[in-house]
Design goal:
2 domains, 16 helices, Serine Threonine Protein Phosphatase 5, Tetratricopeptide repeat, mainly alpha, single chain, 300 residues
Length: 300
């Protein structure tokens, strides 16, 4: 299972798939308090409004919901003082983790050091460390899968979707029956410009879980990138039926409707996001799209 962390980073401009490229906006500092998700497994990343624009525009990807990752010895992360320190003082957590590593902290200390490194603004270094941990054969496969999934998320924060996809493939290979890891892999595939892989990865999973809205939205994005708009529309309509006010589903349906020429329907979806989820990161993207819609076809 994966965890979610946030970091300070400078965005790069990454064009979205089959969508007009937006100008980059200033990358705001993300609230370090959201790092409590590492400990409490709260869905902070999924709701945080201030994701770096480079990540926001990666093929309309939805950030993965935070999930619980057990400590290497089977304990709970909330009992780990290093992880508990992350929310308030990531620099101190990094010092703690490094000292702990020198005194036999093992993979738990190394994981906390990686997450602290991400929190102080070095997601690429953190991702590389997590990749290394995920390759440790002495750890349980489920633990390695969780670490690989964290590495994938870190690579996404570092604007390296290619590396994210490699890590996500490792994670899903270690735990092939975990649907959450499959969704994360499909997101990474979309971001890395491999939408056909996203469609393939989610096929069997959605056959078993046909009402899983987040997976339907990710596959709709993949179908849209492949210009298979009828299938994209079917998936995103199913997602909206399963979760009528989910901002990620509304955002994607608006994009698909725009591509199909239903500008009024697109406007309704994007305006709905501003009403039901004004603080969600999707609201910022909806405002962008509404502005482009008002600007006319040349702007779009």
């Amino acid at each position: 299972m994966s965890q979610t962390v946030v970091a300070v980073m400078t965005p790069s401009v990454i064009p979205s798939l089959a969508r007009p490229q937006r100008l980059p906006r200033p990358g705001p500092r993300l609230a370090l308090g959201a790092l409590l998700a590492v400990v409490a497994a709260l869905p902070a990343w999924a709701s945080a409004p201030n994701h770096p624009p480079a990540l926001q525009r990666l093929a309309r990807l939805e950030a993965p919901t935070a999930r619980h990752v057990p400590a290497a010895g089977g304990g709970q992360p909330a009992t780990n003082p290093c992880l508990a320190l992350l929310a308030d003082d990531p620099a101190a957590a990094l010092d703690y983790a490094q000292d702990w590593s020198r005194h036999g902290g093992g993979s738990d200390a190394a994981q906390c050091a990686a997450l602290s490194t991400m929190a102080v603004g070095n997601p690429a270094d953190a991702a590389a460390s997590l990749d290394g941990l995920a390759g440790e054969p002495r750890l349980r496969p489920a633990r390695r899968a969780a670490l690989a999934d964290q590495a994938a998320q870190a690579w996404m924060l570092a604007a390296r979707p290619d590396r994210a996809l490699l890590a996500a493939r490792v994670a899903s290979g270690l735990a092939p029956d975990d649907p959450d890891l499959l969704v994360d892999r499909a997101r990474a595939a979309n971001a890395a410009g491999q939408p056909a892989e996203a469609v393939t990865v989610l096929g069997a999973m959605l056959a078993a879980h046909p009402a899983r809205a987040d997976a339907l939205v990710v596959r709709a994005s993949a179908y849209r990138a492949l210009n298979r708009l009828a299938q994209a529309h079917a998936d995103v309509e199913a997602a909206c039926a399963a979760a009528p006010d989910a901002p990620d589903a509304l955002l994607e349906r608006g994009v698909v409707r725009e591509r199909l020429g239903d500008l009024d329907g697109a406007r309704q979806d994007w305006t709905r996001i501003l009403s039901v989820s004004p603080d969600a990161r999707e609201a910022d993207l909806a405002q962008q799209d509404l502005a482009l819609l008002d600007a006319g076809p040349e702007a779009r």
